[in-house]
Amino acid sequence: MQNNKLKMCVGALAVCSLQLLNTAIATELDAELVNGNVFLYGDNIEVGIASNGAFGSEVASPRGEMQGKKLGYISDPSKNNFNNGYHGDFFLPQVPEEGWGIYLDGKAYNNNRNQQWSGINGSIISTNKTNTTATTTWQSKKPLEGDGGKDQLDGLQVTQIFRIYKVGLAVIVDVALKNTTSHLMQNVYYMRTVDPDNNAEQSSASNPYSTTNTIMHQGNEKGGAVVVARQSTTSQASNLVSKTIPSLLGLYGQGENSRVAQGGTDDVNFPYYRNPK
User: Fold this and answer.
1) 124 strand-pairing partners
2) Regarding predicted confidence, which is higher, 271 or 104?
3) Distance between CA atoms of residues 29 and 167, nearest Å
4) Domains of the chain: which residue ranges?
5) In what order do the strands lie in the sheet with 37-41?
6) If you average pLDDT over each of 129-138, 170-179, 190-199, 262-271, which comes out highest?
7) Contact call for residues 137 and 156 (beta carbons, < 8 A)
8) What is the mean pLDDT of residues 167-175?
9) Can you give the pTM of this predicted structure?
10) pLDDT at position 108, please?
């Protein structure tokens, strides 16, 4: 839905896991680096990651269904190698909105695809593929303790590993927050936010792409947090996949410290997650 965001936040100084879910997971399994951007390709999914670690490439995809176009996230939930069409792009249509951030000792840092914020300097440091997975790693630059947060995070190092499976339903982001200093860090949060556009590129005035966004669960001792953006088969694109399979994008944060929200809250408003709506 326009101007209606999904957000996930994890309050932990350790390792957390985020999953972007769709009823599917792009061509031959691969991870390809192009001008600081990475493209992940699976059987039924294509994902583009910008140089600042946000979803949504800054350059065109070199191949696949989105060849020659910038890529955020598309998938074929029928798992038929895109022969029946696809859902998406979920991130780049309209005004692109996807990003992530860190809240540390009362200050927020954000890397956002749309506004090209670069509050956390870093880059893609590796790509890898096996017979079953394609991965890429983004890491912040070596932290410089005492720099006032101007370029780095005062000794906090951020590592994000993006992973897809050849056959699967999710893009998984494993996040490690490492304290490289000798002092205690408190009130540390990691966040991702997205304005889900589901099938905006394939929509029309008579066939809108609005979504219904719902918080399914907040993190507790029984499990993590989930928020989803649903689009019915009667309000999405006309290709076969869209006619028969409802489009769904979800954020899942692992662990009892995870929180999710839906709505147009400010990207940097991390305290909001203590009592999300």
Assistant:
1) 138
2) 104
3) 10
4) 5-264
5) 30-34, 37-41, 45-49, 73-75, 87-88
6) 129-138
7) no
8) 85
9) 0.83
10) 82
In 3D, which of 134, 137, 172, 128 has the Cα closest to residue 157? 137
DSSP-derived letter for residue 46 is: E
Task: Report in angstroms the alpha-carbon separations of 145 from 12, 69, 128, 142, 159.
Answer: 20, 40, 31, 10, 17
Q: Does residue 257 come out as left (phi exceeding 0), alpha (psi in the -120 to 50 range) or beta?
A: alpha
Q: What is the DSSP letter of 2?
A: T
- By residue count, the chain amounts to 277
Strands 122-129 and 212-217, how do they pair? Answer: unpaired
Top-ranked range on mean pLDDT: pick from 108-122, 162-176, 234-248, 262-276: 162-176
Average pLDDT over residues 234-252: 68
pLDDT value of residue 171: 92
Confidence tier at 11 by pLDDT (50, 70, 90): very low
Write out the two tokens for 126. Answer: 């590796």
CA 3 to chain centre: 17
Q: In angstroms, rounded to a whole number, what is the distance separating the alpha carbons of residues 154 and 187?
A: 14
Average pLDDT, the chain: 78
Q: How far apart are the C-alpha atoms of 178 and 158, rounded to whole Å?
A: 7
In the DSSP assignment, the letter for residue 113 is: T
> What are the tokens at 272?
């909001």
Q: What is the pLDDT of residue 263?
A: 74
Strand ordering across the sheet containing 258-263: 107-112, 98-104, 188-194, 5-10, 258-263
Helices (H), 190-254: 240-244
**Is the predicted pLDDT of residue 19 greater than 70, yes or no?**
no
Cis peptide bond N-terminal to 195, omega within 30: no
What angle is formed at CA 268 by the lines to CA 37 and CA 98, rounded to 5 degrees?
30
Contact 248, 270 (CB under 8 A): no
